[in-house]
Amino acid sequence: MKEQPAVVFDLGKVLVDFDYRISAAKIARQSRFTPAQVRELLDHSPLLFRLETGLLTGEQFYGEVCAECGFSGNLADFCGTFADIFSEIKPMTAMQATLRANKVPTYIFSNTNSIAMRHIRAKFPFCANFDGSVLSFEQGAMKPDPKIYAVVERMAGRSGQDIVYLDDRAENVAAGLARGWRTLLHQTPEQSIAALRQWGLPVDLSP
Ligand SMILES: [Mg+2]
Fold it and tell me: From the CA of 200, how far away is ligand 1's center (Å)?
C-alpha cells in the first residue's frame, strides 16, 4: 500500500479562529492607547513579528508593549488577556481527528508565539493529537520563508505531493505550492473537507 501523505494544518483561521480586537479592547482599558491603537501595536505588527520569530521572549514583548502604550497590568494579566482571543473551529478539528484515527500523519504549521501557544495548548486538547508542530517562534523563521517549509519536510519525512497543506493566507500557500506540495487555500471547512475527500484522504468516519 502506498504511504499516506501527511496533512499539514495552519493553526490561525484554519483550526482556531482569533480576533485581536478582543485583547486590544481589554489592554486599552489599562493603557493610554485606544483599542484601535493597541490593535495596531499587536496585530501583524513589527513587534509581533519579533515575538513570532523568537527575537523577543514573552516577557520582553510585554515590556515593549508597556513601554509603548503604558499598559499597567502585570505580566500574567497581560499574557492571559493577550492570548484569550481564540475559539476552536470544530468541523476542522473533527476532520483532523478523523484523519488521525485513520493513521494519516498530521502536523501544525504556524506563525505564532509562546504566549499564544501556552494558552492554546491549555485550552484546546486537540492540540496534543498531532505528530508534530512547526512553530515560527521555535524555528526563528516565519511563513512564507522557505526555511521553515524545509523544517516541515524534515519533520514529516515527506516532500512534494506527499504533503497536503491547508492555510488561509495566499502567500503561505504559494510558498508550499512552489515546493511541489499539494496546497489548499482554506476558506470554509466545507470546501476544505470536500477537497481532501477528493484527494482520497479519509476525512469521513467509516460507518
Ligand atoms: Mg492562518
Answer: 24
Query: Residue 1 has what pLDDT?
Result: 52
pTM to 2 decimal places: 0.94
Kindly list the domain boundaries of the chain, sorted by start residue: 6-17+88-198, 20-83
Secondary structure (3-state) at 17 = strand
- Output the CA 169–ligand 1 centroid distance in Å: 6
For 177-189, b where at least 16 C-beta lie within 10 A, e where not — what string?
eebebbbbbbeeb
**What is the CATH number that goes with domain 6-17+88-198?**
3.40.50.1000
CA 207 / ligand 1 centre spacing (Å): 32
37 C-alpha to ligand 1 centroid (Å): 22
pLDDT tens digits for range 7-39: 999 999 999 999 999 999 999 999 999 999 999
Ligand 1 centroid from CA 68, angstroms: 27
Which helix (H) or strand (E) is 75 found in, with range?
A: helix 75-83
